[in-house]
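Can anyone check this?
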Amino acid sequence: MAASSSGRSDESLASLLGGRRGAVDATIPPLAFGLAWWLSSGSVLTGVAVAVAASAALAAWRLGRGSKPRSVLVGLAGVCVAGMIALYTGRAEDFFLLRILSNGGSLLAWAISIVIRWPLLGVVVGVVLGQKIRWRRDPALVRAYGRASWIWVGQYAVRLLVFIPLWWFGFAGALAVAQAVLTWPLVAVCLAVSWWVLRRSLPDDHPGLRHPVTEPVAP
């Protein structure tokens, strides 16, 4: 069932969630690491130093443009931790270990949220729209968010299917390239497909994401 009223015609999950900015921020430091590591003939220290420098420059630029300090600093801290892991083990591929673990944790979190009927896509969009948990009282929205959230589970699964073998066999350069390919392009596909699933899952007469039908319902 198509639901043309599921939001303004110019609105999408990408516009609501700002997926492009986060994806770009997650792409630059790994690419910087991979390129510096390769150009320095396999120096993990050089790769980490360049990745941290790139992340710090990106953080400064984001702060200068008014981004929230907390989100910017979390991204920088993640790159620093990834770098410390790689320096500790001496293995360039371990720079990507934190990203592999975070994708695994995200896959489990999103899947569990769907099973317990608290789909994370609904939680995130509800916060962005200032609805808190009002959407939880709309069975149609809960169902639609649940179906669309499976697309996000698939996104994390695709990354793990690519990242884990590359990490296991020590292909650090390939991991850097895969990180770039499976960040913004994959996020863009995920946003578009989950938006389509979300709209198709709502009844034709539903007022849309911004207007949950909040009549009391049985749990």
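Reply from J.R.: I decoded it. Confidence is low (pLDDT under 50) at residues 1-10.
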